[in-house]
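User: structure tokens for this one?
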Amino acid sequence: MRVFYDIFNTYELAYKKISEIIDITKSTQIVDCCSGSGGPIPHLRDYLNKNNKEFIPITLTDKYPNIACYEQLEALYPNQIVGHRSPIDATNFPKEMTGLRTIFSSFHHFKPDEAIKVLKNAIDNDAPIAIFETIHRSPADFLRAFLSPLFIPFIIPFSRNLNWRKIFFTYLIPIIPFTFAWDYIASIARTYSIKEMETLVAQLNAPHYEWEIGKEWSKQAKCYIYYLVGFPIKSSQNR
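Assistant:
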């Protein structure tokens, strides 16, 4: 997935929206949820640095922290990207961990009741939240998923930390291409449509929050970026 982010800069439109939310809410840091191996965070970091927001640190969090990837990104961006070593559940963030929360390509992992908890926890902590997905339940995305095993062999050479295991299980025994396709298909099936995201937000009691739900077309990635953004309407405090 990180190779896709590197090649297509998939979430460039999301970075712009995050920058706008920082300006509106006066947030002083970003807390990324469900970070995994870092995903698009290096590109977000570069975008912020180029747009006079190099002072905004990004903290990586996950229920299962990938310490090795955290250390790599910390070395590349000293004091700008920091990995939180302890497990953090996106439905139950520590109150002391403040900032604009971001979720990239992971919201579909949460069932509706869990998704509501993710949003409610942000509200309870008066934290802005920005959620983005690049896939949705469409014939085009399902077609891409079914065809993905044909393209993975061309992508693997560009992956970070290329090792013999990736080569062996891609070209000799093609487990990686078909595992990727299965994960791709399962993820598409679990994504939330715009209407479904609106239904989730409608169940929240947060009159002091402003919500924006929609999609934008990425010319470079040739896909829609779906987003759900929420923040306190009168947020004047630094977060």
